[in-house]
Amino acid sequence: MKIGVAKERRPHERRVAASPDTVKRLVGQGHDILVEAGAGAGSAFPDPLYQAAGATIASAQELFGAADILLKVQRPLGTGEGEIDEVYLLKRGSVLIGLLQPLQQRAQVAEYAKAGVTAFAMELVPRITRAQTMDVLSSQANLAGYKAVLEAAAAFGRAFPMMMTAAGTIAPARVLVMGAGVAGLQAIATARRLGAVVSATDVRAAAKEQVGSLGATFLVVDLEAMKQMETAGGYAKEMGEDFARRQREHIAEALKKTDIVVTTALIPGRKAPVLITAAMVANMRPGSVIVDLAVEQGGNVEGAEFAKNVTTANGVTILGPANLPSDIAVDASQLYARNLLAFLALIIDKDKNLKIDTGDEIVKATLLTRDGAVVLPQLAGA
């Protein structure tokens, strides 16, 4: 089996889909590994490290033309999106695996089918115990939550922990994390390690215990209503208008006493919910910092701008980071590569042949296209 590792060409992306360690393991399993020249440069994995692991360095044309399985981080570039049309280069009959944004990029999914490519979207890996080693969203969100707090600390004009000095006492920073999923919980843990007083909110009642276990205070609006705000897969549902109104009122009061906010709320396949309005920001203290981790999907904060830092009239800084895992590219790439390594074990049998078993719930959940057709239930027939 020839497995290719493509160079990422989308803006703000420094990660790579395989590390020298996972390449070595794949070579040890008997696969031929092709790595596009310069693919690992942004993650501190120069070409010689891949060659030492047993890979062959190739050009984009050689890679796309030869790979039976192509590994990527971001979805391929389409017509007019960049220096080359990666979708056009995909080999008919090949397998594409990456973060393909199928619910947002439906037209491109149809292109994979038309090109005769079997495509898998790693963001659709179900949150079940057996799939934990393949859970890309969790591995990358963990790093995003950590980095978000560091970005906030860098932009904040004060210290995080309480400090007692001869010149007087410095009060600890007050941090509010909105959304206690993987990214939010890591943000809580990081802010606590830095010495901040941390509180958190989430629409899911199950998050209360997790937040408390990290030493943070959970802000409760309506515990009974919150019990209905979680899907079987562990994701948050979109909240009703009445609950949303009460949530906004509760948060508005908390924000007046908050120094730093990290927002992490996302709804799969939908625009991110607005959690902080411009009016709420206007009532925050000068020097406060907000980090909007959902900015790429529309943002949780009114006034946030993708890949920009905005300072409001009342002195609040709103950070709209483009791709925080990419800012920790070495670790992010290593974790992502291990996720893919675990996933490959599902679709390659012991004889090194492709094995796509749609009876497997992980395979079924992530499979977008096969045999020239779109097969993902959410997209099929759309």
Descriptive notes:
The protein is of the alpha/beta class. The chain folds into two domains: 2-124 and 328-372, NAD(P)-binding Rossmann-like Domain (Rossmann fold); 144-326, Rossmann fold. It has 14 helices and 17 strands. The strands form three sheets. It has an eight-stranded mixed beta sheet, with helices on both faces. It has a seven-stranded mixed beta sheet with strand order 11-10-9-12-13-15-14, with helices on one face. Strand 12 (260-263), helix 11 (278-282) and strand 13 (289-292) form a beta-alpha-beta unit. The longest helix is centred in the middle third of the chain and has 20 residues, at 136-155. The protein is globular, with a radius of gyration of 22 Å.
Query: Would you identify the regions where 5 or more consecutive residues have pLDDT less than 50?
Result: none
User: What order do the strands of the largest sheet run in, or round the barrel if closed?
Assistant: 3-2-1-4-5-6-16-17
Tell me the radius of gyration.
22 Å
Strand content: 15-25%
- CATH fold title of the largest domain: Rossmann fold
Judging by the overall fold, what is the CATH architecture of the largest domain? 3-Layer(aba) Sandwich
The largest sheet, given as strand count, sense and whether it forms a barrel, is: 8 strands, mixed
The structure class reads alpha/beta
Give the proportion of residues in helices: 25-40%
